[in-house]
Amino acid sequence: MDAVRNAGAERFREFVAGRSSALLKTAVLLSGGDRHAGEDLLQSALIKVAGRWDRIEDPEAYVRQVLYRQQISRWRLKWPKREVSYGSVPDGAAGSDGAAEAELRVVLRAALARLTARQRTVLVLRYFEDLPEGDVARVLGISVGTVRSTTHRALAKLRGLAPELAEDGGDLPPSSRDYAPVEVRP
Length: 186
Hints:
Structural class: mainly alpha
Order of helices and strands: HHHHHHHH
Helix content: 55-70%
Number of strands: 0
Mean pLDDT: 78
Shape: globular
Distance between the termini: 75 Å
Oligomer: single chain
Largest sheet: none
Number of helices: 8
């Protein structure tokens, strides 16, 4: 029996070693760009998963599901907003393309942090995790219509908070209301 437990523990260690960086990226995004909160979120999810490891068929999907549900639980808590600080830009990097991209990432992170936890989570699932609306609804336990309206409102708010992201084709997905005009004939 100990050999079975040891084999399961070894598989768990291998999974964590191989997938923790990708899972941490998702956790940080779900936490509004706060790396420490993302690390806490991932750690608490992995602790929950470790106890059930031998019964899990698809570990990646299961861990992500636990991450999302943990974040939903955190929405419901009345945690005070934490201040996010950024280091200064190095002197020589001001004119490089990398600096412009880094600046856009900082702007996007700040804008994401100003969204509600629900809006941020829906955007992460839809556009970072690339889940269809139905899967997002299932994971969060809400209707597809709620996913659509939350996505629409969150993108509109992002565009208002960070209009520079929408310029030059930016990082923001197109609005769900940006349809081409349709001619209607009687």
